[in-house]
Amino acid sequence: MCIRDSYSSLPIVKRPDVLRPGGATAPGKAVAGSGPAGRWVNAGELPAGLRRVCVFCGGFGSGKSEVAVNFAAVLAGAGHRVRLADLDIVNPYFRSREARVALRRLGVELLLPAEGLLNADMPVVPPEVRGALTSGDGILVIDLGGDPVGARVMVSIASDLPADELDGVFVLNARRPFTDTLEGAVKMMREIEAMAGFAITRVVANTHLADETDAAIVREGIELAEQVCTATGTELAFVAAMRGLRDGVEAVSAGRPLLLLERQLLKPWEGSEARSGEE
């Protein structure tokens, strides 16, 4: 049975055209620019076709917040104006806002709830997010909460989403429950789309097993990510892996764009002084 048919009962969100290998960039605003030296591999520029607004979503434990934070930091380091909106109201420990001091030092503009609400698990959408969605100025990175429940917050700003300038980016960790098979990953993707009201157009292969990650695990994740792309008509945006794994991961990425991550989000008992407070 076709994977698409397996989930025919789920609402299908219409996808805008996306860049195909060897093709032209879809209508809308594509973003290009080099990252700081050594962070992008196999990509002299930002992976082709990515749009001005990148919404990172995925299952719990996918690593989407770490990917979103690093993605924003690399773009800011390359001289782009970058705004990062943390709309994760699900996980109180691994959210983009936990790296706010480091991100501000790098020049990333943060769109966060008021200081008194930073640790609240409420669907608070800063008014600046709507302005960033409609302004057309710079790059907007949105970090959603995990699973479909984390994507629900997008309903409140659905009318402001610029469909022709937006990429829904699904961060896939093939070593997490519910996204460790093709069927599970596609189901998760469809449910997030249905809840959030935007189309997922890109996939990031971010398979990891914390400190146990090696090149073989990353390769496994790339294989599943490409199967998901084939089944859903999406594109592989890039592979993500920790910078310390570069030697092995560069080989298994086999020419695909690779973003080397530097760890920014820590466990609650790690480096609390670097996580909390302002400069």
Describe this structure in words.
The protein has a nine-stranded mixed beta sheet, with helices on both faces. It has 279 residues and is α/β, with parallel strands linked by helices. 30% of the residues lie in helices and 17% in strands. Helix 7 (215-232) runs parallel beside helix 8 (246-253).
Q: Could you say which overall geometry the principal axes of the C-alpha atoms support?
A: globular
- N-end to C-end Cα span: 56 Å
The H-and-E topology, N to C, reads as HEEHEHEHEHEHEHEHEH
Find the structural class using helix and strand composition.
alpha/beta
In what range is the share of β-strand residues?
15-25%
Overall pLDDT score: 78
Helix amount, in percent? Answer: 25-40%
Rg measurement, Å: 17 Å
* Adjacency order of strands in the biggest sheet: 1-9-8-7-6-2-5-3-4
Main sheet? 9 strands, mixed
Q: Treating each run of at least 4 consecutive H or I residues as one helix, how many helices?
A: 9
**Topology, number of strands:** 9
Q: Detail the poorly predicted runs.
A: 1-35, 272-279
Write the layout of secondary structure elements.
Blueprint: H1 3-6, E1 40-41, E2 53-58, H2 64-77, E3 82-87, H3 100-105, E4 109-111, H4 127-135, E5 139-144, H5 147-151, E6 166-172, H6 182-196, E7 200-205, H7 215-232, E8 235-242, H8 246-253, E9 258-261, H9 272-275
Helix pairs in contact: 7-8
